[in-house]
């Protein structure tokens, strides 16, 4: 089976096996990028664990310091009872432990692999974009290129939001909560890292909402009218999602819900832009058809 495949040199035909061969090299290059970043992350163990992963649990983490300053500001401005109400992760008494003999080395390897995947994400997207680009028309390739770049940026913004905002709040709540003073918090390092990564990846995926809206509008599943009509339902769903990925307190849920609501409104704007583009293309097509029909007559 031969398929038409547009290359830089023009339109050529490639067999199914040739497509597989080209895809194989894109995958190999992606794996090389992942392994390379994994090795870098493995080597810089101290930076990866002490500076990145364990930092949100420390008092001097940027978010913790800013919240503490904000708490003192509220105390001075509104005369609140406790000036240290927002000083989270201060004097944490929980202890991270490893309960298996090979626990720390396997944790090191797994974390390095996850770091390699995240850092190599732009390169992987670029490789797969390079594979699919020749099969697209020029206007489709133009829009898809923008969507690939936007999805990458939104993913990393979501990950940073989860790391800088949600992670410190979640760590503070989950490590300070006690059913009894006689029960000490000794937390497995794998559990700590699993919670941190799940929060960051969840927010990274949720922040892809505008891109999802773009493609769903492109294929005709949703419209801006539909999104405006069910805005109230969307607000309820957003607060449910915020409640799932945050600690069970109103402050954290609201902190997450606000950017998600903004993303929803941005999605409506993007959906409207896609609809205008589709209507413009339809009118252009109908005008060309009418012109061709007139010429034949």
Task: Give an overview of the whole structure.
- The protein is mainly alpha-helical and 297 residues long.
- The chain folds into 2 domains: 1-206, no CATH class; 208-297, no CATH class.
- Helix content is 73%, strand content 6%.
- The chain has 11 helices and 4 strands; from the N terminus they run ββαααβαααβααααα.
- The strands form 2 sheets. It has a two-stranded antiparallel ribbon with strand order 1-2.
- Strand 1 and strand 2 form a beta hairpin.
- Helix 1 crosses helix 4 (103-119), helix 6 (138-176) runs antiparallel to helix 7 (189-206) and helix 8 (209-218) packs parallel to helix 11 (250-296).
- It is flat, with a radius of gyration of 25 Å.
- It starts with a strand and ends with a helix.
- The model is unreliable at 1-11 (pLDDT under 50).
Structure at a glance:
The chain folds into 2 domains: 1-206, no CATH class; 208-297, no CATH class. Helix content is 73%, strand content 6%.
